[in-house]
Design a protein that fits this description.
The protein has a six-stranded parallel sheet, with helices on both faces. A six-stranded parallel sheet has the order 11-10-9-12-13-14. It is α/β, with parallel strands linked by helices and 489 residues long. It has 17 helices and 14 strands. β4, α5 (114-126) and β5 (130-135) form a beta-alpha-beta unit. 41% of the residues lie in helices and 13% in strands. The structure holds nicotinamide-adenine-dinucleotide and uridine-5'-diphosphate-glucuronic acid (UGA).
Length: 489
């Protein structure tokens, strides 16, 4: 017999991360009649979500702190009370991490679903009535089947124990398409909301939540497998565009073409479109790589080797591209970086976020450190502790006194003040497109740097005219200089 819920009054979201936090904040803000409880195992993270200092939230996203300020304590709550909040929820979003498996079957490609499975087991155990379980995490196609079978096993237990509870579940797929740095805007004005499922009643209940602020024609309903696969496919297509333009950028540098001009020329074809065609240091972020590798794994699993190889190349090109940048810097600085001071501007994987997961900066900085460079790393939002974790090296506090002793360990220093960092530097490398780097007065900087000095702009944010009249050697991603080397006929 179908157990009915007519209206969603209590939501529980498991996972207070980059997706769970902002998504639930936007739902709470738009649905004052729904109580939204965001729960997480991580005590430190929850403490930060509840911080009185709204600059101390665990995630930096423009516009997020204002929403949290408005709703927290009213209909938006953050806690570690997982059992209690599952028990009272009508709808549960699973928004936990799904990283690439490091060990066992499928290691290096398949998604590690242990956190998702743990959630399903918790829901199976603690839910108290009919519950709609929504997959918010990005998952391999057919994961809903696994979740459903775990949930259904709890019903069998109830029957076996002759318990008098009437538990039942619907599972929906509702993948998230937000980008970090624009999460709030993306959530408020989504291109689409995708809901996959086989029970129209459950789909309508979820849809009604979004309809509070999203126009009806933006809500796409599909079967559950299409929804799961569409999320992986969207990320694969987006990442493929970046690898494509970065590959053409390398060819531009070799031939004297300019990747910005090529992007503009191809992007004005409405079939191609102008977005996501900026050459850069290679895509980062927690998802592109892991989601493509997951797609590759699925293709291999289903015997589609050629399809797997095709998508794998997108990731391989990205890795090659990051290495290409560090090699190019070594080459330009006379083949050695030993004791050369390089200022790194930006460590986050893109601007307007404090997230460094898979940031191109990690591999590039490691390569430069391995070559003996002394890095002065600046980022307006990334915590130096995070940089230490990513590089596996603690920063040097007093660079002048300590660096010679510690040379073999690799040296980096967190640059609080960019102007000071420029003093005596041999090169500056821009890796994140933060606005504040766009207004740097390079004429003044050139007076502080050691000659011959270099600026490497891997984000193409410097207007080349601002480099005129400086004595800085300037390299921009994807810009070829016509000289005898690149005339091949
Ligand atoms: P995250 O690592 O920031 O957050 C996940 C949180 O889940 C962590 O705080 C972790 O402690 C918590 N958690 C894990 N298992 C738990 C359990 N059993 N009970 C309670 N809490 C638990 O991850 P994220 O970036 O928010 O990504 C979450 C999912 O959303 C992933 O599948 C990701 O692929 C997908 N996604 C991410 C983005 C993004 O921009 N980051 C965008 C779209 C989709
Ligand atoms: C990406 C997708 O854009 C989201 O739709 C998706 O929800 C999310 O992944 C996810 O599933 O996690 P995100 O990784 O937050 O979002 O950020 P993007 O704006 O996509 O940027 C990813 C990387 O590509 C960044 O390193 C960025 O600098 C780089 N990029 C992006 C370029 O190098 N060039 C571009 O033109 C665009």
């Amino acid at each position: 017999m179908e157990i009915r819920i007519n209206e969603i009054k209590n939501i529980c979201c498991i996972g207070a991360g980059y997706v769970g936090g902002p998504t639930m904040a936007v739902i709470a803000d738009n649905c004052p009649n729904i109580q939204v409880e965001v729960v997480d195992l991580n005590k430190e993270r929850i403490k930060k979500w509840n911080s009185n200092n709204f600059n101390d939230l665990p995630i930096y996203e423009p516009g997020l702190s204002e929403i949290v300020k408005r709703c927290r304590g009213k209909n938006l709550h953050f806690s570690n009370f997982i059992k209690e909040n599952i028990e009272k929820a009508d709808m549960i979003f699973i928004s936990v991490n799904t990283p690439t498996k490091e060990k066992g079957l499928g290691a290096g490609k398949a998604s590690n679903l242990k956190w998702v499975e743990a959630c399903a087991r918790q829901v199976a155990k603690y839910s108290s009535r009919h519950t709609i379980v929504v997959e918010k995490s990005t998952l391999p196609v057919r994961t809903a089947e696994v979740i459903k079978s775990i949930l259904d096993s709890s019903q069998e237990e109830i029957l076996n124990n002759n318990e008098n509870k009437k538990k039942s579940f619907d599972v929906l797929s509702n993948p998230e398409f937000l980008s970090e740095g624009t999460a709030i805007k993306d959530l408020l004005y989504p291109d689409r909301v995708l809901i996959g499922g086989d029970n129209q009643r459950a789909i309508n209940l979820l849809s009604n939540i979004y309809l509070k602020w999203v126009p009806k024609d933006k809500i796409i309903e599909t079967n559950i497998w299409s929804s799961e696969l569409a999320k992986l496919t969207a990320n694969a297509f987006l990442a493929q565009r970046i690898s494509s333009i970065n590959s053409i950028g390398a060819l531009c540098e070799a031939t004297g073409a300019d990747v910005r001009e090529v992007s503009r020329a191809i992007g004005s074809d409405s079939r191609i479109g102008s977005k996501f065609l900026d050459a850069g240091p290679g895509f980062g972020g927690s998802c592109f790589k892991k989601d493509i590798l997951n797609l590759v794994y699925l293709c291999e699993y289903f015997g589609l080797k050629e399809v797997a190889d095709y998508w794998h190349e997108v990731v391989k090109l990205n890795t090659w591209h990051q290495k290409r940048i560090s090699k190019l810097i070594v080459k330009k600085l006379f083949g050695t970086l030993t004791n050369k001071k390089i200022v790194i501007l930006g460590f986050a994987f893109k601007n307007n976020t404090n997230d460094t997961r898979e940031s191109a900066a990690i591999q590039i900085c490691k390569d430069l450190i391995d070559e003996g460079a002394i890095l002065f790393i600046h980022d307006p939002k990334v915590d130096p502790k995070q940089i230490s974790l990513d590089l596996g090296i603690s920063p040097i506090k007093n660079i002048n006194q300590e660096y010679k002793n510690d040379f073999n360990k690799g040296i980096w220093h967190f640059a609080e003040n960019i102007s000071e960092a420029f003093i005596g530097s041999d090169a500056v490398l821009i890796l994140t497109e933060w606005d504040q780097y766009k207004d740097i007065n390079w004429f003044e900087v050139s007076k502080l740097m050691r000659k011959p000095s270099w600026v490497f702009d891997a984000r193409s944010i410097i207007n080349p005219t601002s480099m005129k009249n400086t004595n800085i050697n300037f390299w921009r991603i994807g810009e070829g200089l016509l000289n005898e080397d690149n005339i091949f006929f």
